[in-house]
Predict the structure.
Amino acid sequence: MSLLAAEPLRALFDYTAARVGPRADVVGDGHPVVVYPGLGAGALTTAHLRRYLKDSGFTVHDWGGGVNTGPEGSFDEWLLRLEERLERLHARHQRKVSLIGWSLGGVYARELAKRRPEMVRQVITLATPFAALAQGNHAGTVFKLLNHDKAQLEPHVEARIRECPPVPTTSIYSRSDGIVSWRGCLERRTLRSESVEVHASHLGIVSHPQVLRIIADRLAQPEGSWQPHAMARSR
């Protein structure tokens, strides 16, 4: 509970560190990137991340869904709206799109990559407990409160969420996360998937200087030449 109570203050420190930290290096190739916010968050909470990635040389888009209050009704039917936006961005840019998701937003990014892998360049999640979405962490409780115990995921859907997308995938997590279980954020390391540990709060991971640099490094890799990060877990 101490980590949970400290989350707002730690997030403030993470954001302040990002504001006074070094400026972004231009490493991008201009390909499109979509950022999906966490539960209860919206465009304002990911603004610093999107600005950093824009300055790094990427074409960055907000998810376009306002405040993320969780899926409504059937999860698969609800995802169709996000899939349609992905299709439009892919058609507009004529390039594969990288997807970045914070917490619950990472679940959306992973599922979209499974549905339309031909349109997705890579997936990066921040503190997303895809392996334990509603168990052993505070995020499950918040999800139920915001959705009035409705639209809960069925067991077979939760099992599907644990599956890794068929595109290069990076899960960034923190053992000192005060909201989700870090163990639920671990992705097995393969030729196209990895987990990278940082020391950040759940609320501040989206603006933490180290996290920003890792994201830019992942996105900067040439398409088709993805390699694990030097800090990735060995298994």
